[in-house]
Design goal:
The structure is a single chain. This protein has about 120 residues and is mainly α. It has a domain at about 20-85. The chain has helices at about 15-70, 75-85. The model has no long low-confidence stretch (mean pLDDT about 85).
Length: about 120
């Protein structure tokens, strides 16, 4: 009586299947964590860009208002010409101040020239 050949035990593949499932779940977890991190970074970048867009839109509105004032208000145009370009009207009195010295010091008051020595009677 010979025994039929022993068939492999049905539970011999369980550790291999378990390890494969564990590895698959671990890889999915790593991929999900990386995807979540990337999504968080993208949302932060989106918030930053939206803030910059709002700031830029505000600056555009300010510049459009300035353009309108320059086109419609002669007083604004004159003030900017005087301040930025140094222009003056005929008849204006111009005061020139001495330039600042290096180090932010001003030159201070100038000394009056000494009077000439008295003429000798001889």
């Amino acid at each position: 009586m010979s025994k039929p050949p022993a068939s492999p035990r049905p539970d011999s593949f369980r550790p291999v299947v378990g390890a494969a499932v564990f590895l698959f779940v671990a890889l999915l977890g790593i991929a999900a964590w990386k995807g979540s991190r990337d999504l968080t970074a993208a949302r932060e970048r989106e918030r930053l860009l939206e803030t910059r867009i709002e700031e830029t839109q505000g600056r555009i509105d300010e510049l459009r208002g300035r353009i309108d004032r320059l086109r419609s208000d002669p007083g604004t145009l004159e003030r900017l010409a005087r301040e930025d370009l140094g222009m003056v009207r005929p008849g204006d009195v111009i005061l020139e101040l001495p330039p600042d010295l290096p180090g932010g010091r001003s030159p201070g008051p100038r000394k009056a020239a000494a009077p000439p020595p008295p003429a000798s009677p001889y």
